[in-house]
Write a structure and sequence with these properties.
- This protein is an all-beta fold.
- It has 2 domains: about 5-115, Immunoglobulin-like, CATH 2.60.40.1930; about 145-464, Methylamine Dehydrogenase, Chain H (7 Propeller).
- Helix content is about 0%, strand content about 50%.
- It is built from 1 helix and 42 strands.
- A 5-stranded mixed sheet has the order 4-10-9-6-7, with helices on one face. A 4-stranded antiparallel sheet has the order 11-42-41-40, with no helix packed on it. Strands 12-13-14-15 form a 4-stranded antiparallel sheet, with no helix packed on it.
- The longest helix has 10 residues, at about 20-25.
Length: about 475
């Protein structure tokens, strides 16, 4: 909705309240004016296409996002315009906003359509590249995160080591009580649950109205995101702790049966599988037509995303349970040999390694030229993404198996010392912490809220 008063280009411009404006629109004989948007939701800096009809022919039109003028144009001979792109302002907070198209000569003549700003976290790595950073977060920052408090918690029947996915106002998460849950993001109220045949340690991925998740009952499931109805399941030969990654209509996931699978996202049909030398707990990253994944056979693999053909492998000194992150042509991953590795994404050549004091099962996050990762030596590390040089470390009271999440200058991570932490991404200084219990789940940051599970059966939501 427009505000009653605003300043545009330094000139004070009076606006009517929306309710009065709508009366004026109808009263001036323009009741047929309409505005449509495509898409009708998205993050800050995304683009929506605005179309309108019912205006005067060849009339100048101004388009606003809330009170910010974003475009001007002329209607065609029928009084219409089609698919004019406007950019959602970077400062637009999560929630409903209004896009208005009005006659330049008569600001009370026009129409509005709602646009919902979402900063969703739809899968374990945020995007298929697994960088674990939300570039759209504009509510929480180093100055505001210290005042976070518990918004709600939802108690399941067992441990929550699965990491939540957040999409379109719903949080999806698995539990060791064998269930996948869908919860209202603002209140934690349960919308539905789906029971599998065993633990759900896999983290859900959400794409095109479908939730994809693995279970220790050997299956990968596709569930209707709105109702929880099973759409299909695919049976592997062992437990599926790996978290699915969805890219270009394909679900990529590992299994303890030693295989990486590529499944048709719509039908669940197997497109290909690739057999490693041991179980695959690592969750795949997908970038530029290549799937990157670790295996308990001590290797990191690069596979052709279309065929599954191996492009290269990189040998570490132990299990690779960490999930790779791909950024700027480099693959970053941890290993149980205590190291974090950086490899050329095209060739697999080692660029650098950094040795910690413990197993690195945590998956790296990459943001602004820095790699963030946890270690069982009790530390969270920030490493120069180009050289591997340590920029800072933060010591917790126990293992850090949780994978960091980065958003707007803050690193969020859990520890087995029973805390979830918010750290300054530049300095490593502690900005905030909360003590639920051991945190193996990896945080998701969406719409100004931090979601994370714990081993005392709860999913938590923290915000303002």
């Amino acid at each position: 909705m427009k505000y009653a008063t605003m300043i545009v280009s330094g000139i004070c411009r009076e606006f009517f309240l929306m309710s009065f404006a709508l009366v004026m629109f109808a009263g001036m004989g323009f009741g047929q004016i309409s505005v449509t948007l495509s898409p009708r939701s998205g993050p800050p800096t995304s683009t929506t296409l605005v179309s309108g009809s019912g205006f005067s022919p060849n009339a100048e039109i101004y388009i606003y996002f809330d009170s910010s003028k974003r475009a001007s144009l002329y209607t065609d001979g029928s009084g219409s315009f089609s698919k004019r792109p406007i950019v959602v302002p970077a400062y637009a907070r999560p929630g409903q906003h209004w896009v208005t198209a009005e006659l330049a000569s008569s600001p009370t003549t026009g129409a509005q359509a709602p646009f919902r700003v979402d900063t969703n976290w739809v899968e374990l790595g945020f995007t298929p590249e697994n960088q674990r950073t939300n570039p759209y977060e504009n509510v929480l920052n180093p100055s505001t995160v210290g005042s976070m408090d518990l918004d709600w918690n939802f108690r399941t029947g067992s441990l929550v080591s699965s990491s939540p996915a957040v999409a379109n106002g719903v949080v999806y998460v698995g539990s060791w009580d064998d269930n996948v849950y869908a919860l209202k993001a603002t209140t934690g109220a349960m919308l539905w649950s789906f029971t599998t045949g065993s633990y759900v340690q896999s983290s859900p991925a959400v794409a095109n109205g479908v939730v994809y998740v693995g279970s220790d009952d050997f299956n990968v499931y596709a569930l209707n995101a709105t109702t929880g109805t099973k759409l299909w399941s695919f049976t592997t030969g062992a437990i599926v702790d790996s978290s699915p990654t969805v890219a270009n209509g394909v679900v990529y996931v590992g299994s303890a049966d030693n295989n990486v699978y590529a499944l048709n996202a719509t039908t669940g049909a197997k497109l290909w599988s690739f057999t490693t030398g041991s179980g695959v707990e690592s969750s795949p990253a997908v970038a530029n037509g290549v799937v990157y994944v670790g295996s308990d056979d001590l290797n990191v693999y690069a596979l052709n995303a279309t065929t599954g053909a191996m492009l290269w492998l990189f040998a570490t000194g132990s299990y690779v349970q960490s999930s790779p992150a791909v950024a700027n042509g480099v693959v970053y991953v941890g290993s149980n040999d205590y190291n974090v590795y950086a490899m050329n994404a095209t060739t697999g050549t080692k660029l650098w390694s950094f040795t910690t004091g413990g197993i690195v099962g945590s998956s790296p996050a990459v943001a602004n030229g820095v790699v963030y990762v946890g270690s069982e030596d009790h530390n969270v590390y920030a490493l120069n993404a180009t050289t591997g040089a340590k920029l800072w470390s933060f010591t917790t009271g126990s293992y850090v198996q949780s994978s960091p999440a980065v958003a707007n200058g803050v690193v969020y991570v859990g520890s087995d010392d029973n805390n979830v932490y918010a750290l300054n991404a530049t300095t490593g200084a502690k900005l905030w912490s909360y003590t639920p219990a051991g945190v193996y789940s990896s945080p998701a940051v969406a719409n100004g809220v931090v979601y994370v599970g714990s081993d005392e059966y709860n999913l938590y939501a923290f915000g303002h």
